[in-house]
Amino acid sequence: MRRHGDSYWHLHRAVVREEDAFDHKTLLSWTKGTKVPRSIESFEILSRIERRYRLPDGYFKAKLPHQARSASGHEVGSDISPSERRRLAWHLPDNFNSLPFAKREEILEWVRRVIISGSTDYRRFQAMATRQRYAIRFPAISYGGTPSSRASADTLDWEDDDRTAIEDPDLLSGVVDAPPRLAMEMANLIRFKTATLTALGFQRNGVWGEETASQKIEHLGLMFGALAASPKGPVKGFGVPLSQLTFGLLVFPGVWDWYLQWRERRRGFYTTWEEDMLSVLLNLVRAETGWLWQHPELARNVTPIPGLISAAEIAAAERDWHAACETCFKHASHRSKEIQRVMRVHRDPFEPIMCVLEADSPLAEYRKITDEILKRMPNEHRYPRAAAEAVRSFLMLRLGLHLGLRQKNLRQLLVCPRGHFPTSERRLEDMKRGEIRWSDRDRGWEVLVPANAFKNANSSFFGSKPFRLVLPDLLDLYKYLNAYIERHRGVLLAGADDPGTLFVKTVKANSRDAAYNQTTFYEAWRLTIQRYGIYNPYTGRGAVKGLLPHGPHNVRDVLATHILKQTGSYEQASYAIQDTAEMVASHYGRFLPQDKAALAAKILNQVWEAA
């Protein structure tokens, strides 16, 4: 303006039309720096100013102190809720309102399908399934976490995103509290399977940890919920009255055959879920050590259910409970083998990141997301909270790529600020958590995680020794890690109680709990991918074309596949994700065959090149 001799009043008269409701004082606030353009209308005015001063398109917008901030004022229709408007605003172009109606509909459909929901068959099935509510909840005995609050299909993995775990969107649908008798029976089962010592007079084979116990509570709740759901409703359950629900029902093969076939009709095929549920049953009715085997009194709680259990079957079970358990064990064994033969995979865990895994260097491809975060980093002095959230997102991905930890271990990682005494290894073992601390010996940030904190603690990878890694100071990692621990983390806490973990939620007026749980950590990661990872052809934002929303476990897939492609070694790939070569071979072998010949040729060609 000074260069062209313009005052803010002259500039306003030159670029603002009569039909525009744009106050000249807004221009004054821009020149003083008290406000910055954010609305669609303001960006249009900026474009006119650029044309007036013969500046390239986007010249002023590139100077905004908050590059990742969404614009306001998109005309997306009155039928869209305010919450969806906020989600969509991040991914719509600035000229959205001036585009033809058909083009706007095309953009909205693409954003909803690709960025918001993810365009996979499983996502579509999940969206349908979550609208049908039927599961039985056990709120009084939920064992860790907040399962009923989860909001995405990939978060349904209570084994902390391990590939052997079972996922199902029906877990989102718990709405009915268990009747008192069923709740007491579930509490008895959980106590039996989680107690440090087996109760006197009972025998047990195997112990459930926190995640496993939470998973079984929900999975069994789904089965009872299906039995109780109305056969005339969309769920098409069996209609068993809540008062008749009891664990004694699980000993009768007819109950299981109905449930397995009900799930097959619902999904269209059998999956690992059904096989896993049968393995739970086998454990419960196993001779001598099964919980059901050791509770014959449950037979007295069972009443005839027409079309499911007859009075004669109940009488036979009351006469010889152990014989009924043996019959059920044989039946479940046969069904398990039959389902293993025909079951299909409904959710390909690699599908959201397939474009990354198929790249020559998967790690370099995924790293582009962290570069995109830094590119759009807000000004810390003007937007301290937004900057803190961006640094947190950056560190989540960077530490995930360096450490290859499971979601649980990364989420529960404690932090010891520089200059403080680190937590002793024995104390970390008691808490089953790792810690990031400054190592004076190595002059770097060290991550120490006791072996018993890992899901596969008994794996040969650990040998009862802790996981220890000094983070490399590459591409400003220490710069942002120091800034986060010293400043940004405190901004996010906003005076709330400190949970002691490295990663904390943004504390707001309606939520004072700063600790992440499995759901919220997954959602934080997924939001980062939506905002910075998925390339948007309509806005030019995003780092990777073809990427879909996903959770933190996929980082382990990136690391294992990258090393496998570079070295061809299952063993070296297993080192990156703290697992065994056998596991890597079974899960990631599909990404190696096309590269085997090239790897061998690379070594053989060295002879010819030397000649």
UniProtKB/TrEMBL annotation:
GO molecular function term, any single one: DNA binding
GO biological process: DNA integration; DNA recombination
Highest rank taxon of the organism: Bacteria
InterPro entries assigned: Integrase-like_cat_sf (IPR013762)
Protein name stated in the entry: Integrase
Species, as recorded: Sinorhizobium saheli
